[in-house]
Structures are given as structure tokens and as C-alpha cells.
Amino acid sequence: MILIWADVYVGFSPSQSFQPQQVSWVHTFNAGVNNYLQLKGWFESGTLLTRTVTDFGQKMAEYCLSYMLKEAQHHEILEKQQRNKQWSVVTPKPLKEITVTLFGTGEIGKKIAEIFSLLGITVYGISYSGEQKSEFKAVTTVAQSSQYVEKSDYIISTLPLTQETNQLFNSTIFKTFNKAVFINVGRGQVVNTEDLIQALENNTVRHAILDVVDEEPLPTNSVLWDRSDITITPHISALTDIDDAVACFYETLQNIENKNHLNNKVDFQKGY
Predict the structure, then answer these.
(1) Cα-Cα end-to-end distance for the chain
(2) If you write DSSP's letter for every residue of 218-271 in order, what string do you get?
(3) In 147-157, which positions are buried (b, 16+ CB within 10 angstroms) versus exposed (e)?
(4) Which of 61, 129, 140, 206 has the maximal Cβ count within 10 Å?
(5) How is the beta sheet containing 154-157 ordered, strand by strand?
(6) Containing H/E element for 41?
(7) What are phi and psi of 266, to 5 degrees?
(8) Cα Dmax for the chain
(9) CA–CA dist 105, 156 (Å, integer)
(10) What are the extents of the domains in the chain?
């Protein structure tokens, strides 16, 4: 397909023959842009790339909280007791006693931290810059992340896939976990799967909740399916609502026409 008649390309992913220089503006309905950045020619073409920004942070916060509350409220224990007709008090763990380290302090990460903090959860942030953000108790760099990771009950990744984040969660980082639960709602390729399995075997990671994996759909022969210490969901933590996506595109179009600041413009050097 050659877009000789178009100025703008809009879609979830690029078509097979698409090249950035064919248009002046590309808008993706996804929050992540790694499938577009795999194409060459962005710098040379000067093509604008924007992404969809909606309530992804709210949705991801609710997704993560559902699993955190399930554990804090001992749902599995209570369900087993009901099956056995057993009346035995199990004390829930208050959210104010839970500590979370969140990798990714952008718009999505900040929203998750804001929601968690309102519930009394202590939230630390990890980013490459280490820039402090008011939504977090404190923020540090990836290189210094162990100081917060080792005292956290949950480690959550919202990271996009970039050259820097590819395979970031490997044996080095997993060794700093202190029997924490790992939740990945960002991109599957930021995790070294073999190292994650080893960390589960060593119990430095006590459970992994993976909404994203490095190959999607996850093949039926993957060992991840059969592990009781791994929970798999099919990339549903922040599904794109088409009405919200269209509204974001329209708002972006208006901002371009009015020469306003674009908060969803992709930084090619950062990769998001």
C-alpha cells in the first residue's frame, strides 16, 4: 500500500508496506509505539508520531488492585474454608501496610501511584532520570532501584519497550526482590522469561502476574501456562475504548491545527 493521497496514517499498527515518509503525521490508537518505532526513517522524514492517551492508568490501577486485594483479603483461603465448611477467622492485611515499587513514572505510572496513595499504599517510583514526582513517596533511578525493591510487597512494571528497557527485568533485578509479587502491565519484552522462572524457583519472586508476555498470543506449549505461581491474562489490563481513542485523535488534531502543545507526541530518542 502506498499512501500517495494521504497526509495522515491512523491505526493500531502500521500496514505491511507502510513507511513514515509517506505521510506527515502518524497517530496510533495504542499507548505503546514499539511496533511503529521498528520502522526506519522517522528522523529523516520529520514525520510526527502521536499516541493515544486515555484512562489507561486508571484501568491498570484497578487491574493491579484486584490481585493485591485478593491476596490482602485472603480470598483463596476463605474460599477453601467455605468448601470445607470451616469457620476460622483470617485477618486481612490493611492496604496501609503494603509497599509498592512502580517501574515507570510517566502519565500511567503517576495515575496508578495517585490511586494507590489515596488508599494508603506506600508507592515508590523508578525511572531512568530519577526525577521526583509528587504522586510518589520517592523516586530513584533504575541503577538505585534495589533500595526500594527489596522492601516492597509488589513490584509493578508499566514500562514501554525501548532499547533501554528490553530485558530489563533479568536475574540482576530479580535478585533484589524479597519474595515480592511481580506484576507486568507494560510490555512483555522487558522481562527475561528464563530469569523470571528461576527467580520463582528461588522464591525471590513469590508470584508473577503477567498481563503481557514476550510473544502474544502466548503459545499453548509455553511453560508459563502450567505454573501455579504465574497468573496469565490476555493483555486486558487497559483495553482501548474506541470512543476514547477517537476522542484523543480528535483532540490531537485540534491541537495540531491550533499549534498547541502535544502531550502525546512521541520522543524518538526516548522511545515513547
Answers:
(1) 26
(2) PPTT-GGGG-TTEEE--S-TTPPPHHHHHHHHHHHHHHHHTT---TTB--TTTT
(3) ebbeebbbbbb
(4) 61
(5) 138-141, 122-127, 99-103, 154-157, 180-184, 205-210, 230-232
(6) none
(7) -80, 130
(8) 71
(9) 11
(10) 8-54+240-257, 57-232
- The whole-angstrom separation of Cα 109 and Cα 46 is 29
Residue 128 backbone class (left: φ over 0; alpha: ψ -120 to 50; beta: rest): alpha
Cell digits for 115?
490511586
How far apart are the C-alpha atoms of 191 and 177, rounded to whole Å?
Answer: 14
- Label residues 122-133 b or e (16+ Cβ within 10 Å = b): bbbbbbeebeee
CATH superfamily, with its number, for domain 57-232: NAD(P)-binding Rossmann-like Domain (3.40.50.720)
Residues 119, 112 contacting (CB under 8 angstroms)? no
The residue behind cell 502450567 is 226
Q: Which residue has the cell 513514515?
A: 20
124, 112 Cβ separation under 8 angstroms: no
**Element counts in the chain: helices (H) and strands (E):** 9, 10
Q: What is the DSSP letter of 160?
A: P
254-269: pLDDT as tens digits:
999 999 999 999 999 8
